[in-house]
Amino acid sequence: xxxxxxxxxxxxxxxxxxxxxxxxxxxxxxxxxxxxxxxxxxxxxxxxxxxxxxxxxxxxxxxxxxxxxxxxxxxxxxxxxxxxxxxxxxxxxxxxxxxxxxxxxxxxxxxxxxxxxxxxxxxxxxxxxxxxxxxxxxxxxxxxxxxxxxxxxxxxxxxxxxxxxxxxxxxxxxxxxxxxxxxxxxxxxxxxxxxxxxxxxxxxxxxxxxxxxxxxxxxxxxxxxxxxxxxxxxxxxxxxxxxxxxxxxxxxxxxxxxxxxxxxxxxxxxxxxxxxxxxxxxxxxxxxxxxxxxxxxxxxxxxxxxxxxxxxxxxxxxxxxxxxxxxxxxxxxxxxxxxxxxxxxxxxxxxxxxxxxxxxxxxxxxxxxxxxxxxxxxxxxxxxxxxxxxxxxxxxxxxxxxxxxxxxxxxxxxxxxxxxxxxxxxxxxxxxxxxxxxxxxxxxxxxxxxxxxxxxxxxxxxxxxxxxxxxxxxxxxxxxxxxxxxxxxxxxxxxxxxxxxxxxxxxxxxxxxxxxxxxxxxxxxxxxxxxxxxxxxxxxxxxxxxxxxxxxxxxxxxxxxxxxxxxxxxxxxxxxxxxxxxxxxxxxxxxxxxxxxxxxxxxxxxxxxxxxxxxxxxxxx
Amino acid sequence: xxxxxxxxxxxxxxxxxxxxxxxxxxxxxxxxxxxxxxxxxxxxxxxxxxxxxxxxxxxxxxxxxxxxxxxxxxxxxxxxxxxxxxxxxxxxxxxxxxxxxxxxxxxxxxxxxxxxxxxxxxxxxxxxxxxxxxxxxxxxxxxxxxxxxxxxxxxxxxxxxxxxxxxxxxxxxxxxxxxxxxxxxxxxxxxxxxxxxxxxxxxxxxxxxxxxxxxxxxxxxxxxxxxxxxxxxxxxxxxxxxxxxxxxxxxxxxxxxxxxxxxxxxxxxxxxxxxxxxxxxxxxxxxxxxxxxxxxxxxxxxxxxxxxxxxxxxxxxxxxxxxxxxxxxxxxxxxxxxxxxxxxxxxxxxxxxxxxxxxxxxxxxxxxxxxxxxxxxxxxxxxxxxxxxxxxxxxxxxxxxxxxxxxxxxxxxxxxxxxxxxxxxxxxxxxxxxxxxxxxxxxxxxxxxxxxxxxxxxxxxxxxxxxxxxxxxxxxxxxxxxxxxxxxxxxxxxxxxxxxxxxxxxxxxxxxxxxxxxxxxxxxxxxxxxxxxxxxxxxxxxxxxxxxxxxxxxxxxxxxxxxxxxxxxxxxxxxxxxxxxxxxxxxxxxxxxxxxxxxxxxxxxxxxxxxxxxxxxxxxx
Lengths: 621, 621
Description:
The structure is a homodimer.
Chain A: H1 2-10, H2 26-39, H3 44-56, H4 60-88, H5 95-103, H6 105-137, H7 145-161, H8 173-194, H9 212-222, H10 231-234, H11 243-271, H12 282-291, H13 295-328, H14 346-362, H15 367-396, H16 401-425, H17 431-459, H18 463-466, E1 478-483, H19 489-501, E2 505-511, H20 514-525, E3 533-537, H21 544-552, E4 563-572, H22 576-580, H23 585-593, E5 599-607, H24 611-616
Parallel strand pairs in A: 1-2, 1-4, 2-3, 4-5
Helix pairs in contact in A: 2-8, 2-11, 2-13, 3-4, 3-9, 4-9, 4-11, 4-16, 5-6, 5-15, 6-7, 6-13, 6-14, 6-15, 6-17, 7-13, 7-14, 8-11, 8-13, 9-16, 12-13, 13-14, 15-16, 15-17
């Protein structure tokens, strides 16, 4: 029944051949890869204001422009830097690969850990922000914010388990729709101002001095506008020929769009000084002032919501792919490399959903609460990736390498400074979680690798072991023990089977006292077999300990290194409730015995028939 | 770690020899067996008033006396009836045994179901009432009523899992203390009245006519005073010589005590007309009027609480014992016959705790809510037990059988009428749950028995099967298949083992495509073994289906009825977190294959060494 439910939700299994990649050009590559970066416009500006308004009131809108300019400067630098990564990693240059290639395992694993944290936060922040847009337009939904977020994440999970492809063109449309909506709003907003409209000014009184700490804190929030910029460089092989060129084009157009939308909304906010918070999200409030509650207002709200959910969806393909690559290298559990029935990396998708739901619930789906954790992971991976590129130039040299090294080096330097700024200003607002979590993850990943190396070393065959299979062995080296509880069809079947695999069989019984032991022996003698029966007495009602003790005792003719096969008879019943009616000592005994070297556990099932059939037919009387 | 926690809570395992029964005489037998019946005094009178006061105001106290008289009449009848049961069942005559012996399986199973429900309710009602006494004296505790009840039940559970014996004499003291407290209160109460004290009269205005329905409803509540009277007849073998005589003595003294305490408090309530409910339990309120808040007040409260918890505790030995007897007869899951490490019937104890916690939570630990469910189960078992005794006299005759048959027959008749009264008056107040639950339980118990009969029929050996074990079999009838994922020490070990148990071995591999299949074959050829390797291709990433398909195909030389052994190599890792790093396909494959006839699954563990050891020593390089 559970299986049928799973089929219904996830769909029928797909064959491996279905795993052919769709390739895209600039037109569709742009919206698909850009949704994460572009959607940041929905929260980055607003989160800057959140820091500034309570401190400096209306002056915040002036400072917003300055901070936006700094962030756009960073954007341009990152675009130059990553355009060089694209050129050098035509097979995809995620921070994990670039850092591992050029800076070594520790840096690579650190980038992997930072990116993993980042993906989880992308889901949590994007979904929370998306729902904030909706609840800003429809206030009655506000009490259900967390619930709506959780349901959306679960839908994304199911969709991705079914194997939604990021590459589907439908996924590109919301990005264009969002761009259209925001640009329309910018144009309409400025036209409305020209025509003499004066937006209402909020009455904000708190006035504190503008301090560097305040500005850096606001800058840290603004840095979230740059998350997702690296997506293009990961996806180079997904582009049509010539991939490198197409990818670079997309990266540059992406930068221009983020520049336009982020810059544009920041300027517009100066003239429409809405206060995000209680009255809802900044974009939605501005849209209401500009369009009233007309169709365009709902269009802005809907497209903003949609692009944010699309942004969350990119993490659902990015995270599982990243950790599957990490897992293939042995730094995370191998199950993460396995594709599910629908060819998606199911385990990764489930892990991502669980963690992001946890975050959404803990932080009550408030972007402002989550933002403190967000940017730091991204910027750590930026820094590692750029440093990697810098080292690459220094090591490999090549044509014209010095200016290229300077670009990546400067990129690494600036993003490293951003990491420090974010870590300090946001430490108490959640960044400390990430700061402690990443080293813990790195430690765990190295431990995992160590384990896999140790396992593969132990599994490696030595040349002399290759030819061992067909060597004739002493017939008595194959010991078989059949534990029996009572004499019935099941135990007789097990003894019969034992005889076919060895001439060295014993039956073994644990009785509570001599009386019940004698009863067993009496019945056993009726079987007329030459298999000896060993009876041990145990006041405890367990079979494993007496059996192991017997094997180790002098009584048992067993040479160290011989194999012992223990045959466990088992009923296989037909329905779940019948299963409740039999004790599961078999499972327990199997688990205990398998802890011991040289013991093979053979489970011999006896298929039981339907109760009704047995009771009706005289066959079993 | 979990195991260590269990040890800490439950204690070290005990040997079977520790299971020697303590025998008791009249002095200690009385308090130990009587706590359930005597403790009913704490709620039975009060629950009668709960029905009457809202309808007829102060007249309730007069009617209370009448109803108490009727119940005491019933008590006398039951004492006579059960005294005859004791005489005839010196090995213990619970309702289940008496009804099954004399009325057949259906009646026995019905009594078993009714008693099981009764035991669960004894715990829920007694603990709820006990806590009500405490919260009556200490009002600030009232909001935590449910929590306190749950904690108390969990403590009783742990105590009984550790193997507290009901027979411990310490358990007798609270009963005597309670008797002493209530009798002191009765005496002090009447002396206070003689000395001219006039208790405050509550101002109750509601006045409705006294109807038969009202009185019967109140009577139904009062019937709960008789729960626990049957305990003595169950426990006859636990008495010192002469057991029958001692048990009868105890039963009669018990009846006298219940008579005194229940009758006495009912009369006292007429003079101290307290209103149970918001201001707390009846006994506690009366104690406050009589003793003020002096030491005797606290003594009454404390002993009432304690005897109620002791009463709940009797269910913790009664219920597991009952269902273990039922399980031995095959009417409930066999696991219930197994004693735990501490020789208590752990499964029964856990089931009882879980169900009674469920009731306490659902009914908010209010005795008044639970009382509607309580008496009916007890009275059904009274009726079945007395009817069984009646049939016994009619069938077996014997000396002077007619008056004895009349006593039991009249007992059955009267309790049957009580069942009907309770079922009708309490139907909407919860009795309907029990009325529907008992037939469902009976149906389930009969189904369980059917299953066990069907299983034992299938396990029964026919004479010709007895001598089958040592028959020589065709060497090729023993097929062995070793599924291999890759060529390593573990798979080579499995192949080597396969060779020792059969000459008819194949290796089996499922590859995703030809490329990986060729790689496996190339490596396999280096092993130089004569075991053939079969490679199948499957686009799905599963091994079970291709394997089963292969076995059924003409390609495989397999005659129906031959055994196939499938050998599954497995790593055994050393720590729980290492276990997370390997997929558990083995468990899944084993489960799937065991559904098929004639397949034996052999699990071959490879014990992995500690990572550090492997990585340090050069041995594995």
